[in-house]
Prior knowledge:
The protein is mainly alpha-helical. The protein is built from 4 helices and 2 strands.
Amino acid sequence: MGTNDVAAKLAEVHREYQKNGGFDDGDKITADTCPLTDLKGFESDFIPEIVRRIARELGNPLPKGTRVKNIYVEKGRKLTLREIAKKFVENYAAKECKV
C-alpha cells in the first residue's frame, strides 16, 4: 500500500461521505482537496472512522483499541488528501509498506 493508493481510497471515501451527506461537491474531490476546508459538512468527528475504514479496505485493519491520531492536521495546518495519505502510511501502514 503506497501513498497514491491511500490518496485514491481517501478520495473515494470522501466522495461517498459527501454524497451521503447530500452535498454536491463530491465529484470535485482530488488528492489536492483539503477536507477540513474544501468539503461542506465534513467534520473532524469523522476522522477516526475514516482512518479505520481505509486501513480495513486496504487489507491492514487496525488492531482493536488502536488510538487513531488526527492525521488531517499537522502543526495547526489543515492537510490535503495527498498529505493525509502520506501521514496514514507513516502511522498505520504495515511495516513492509513503509520501505
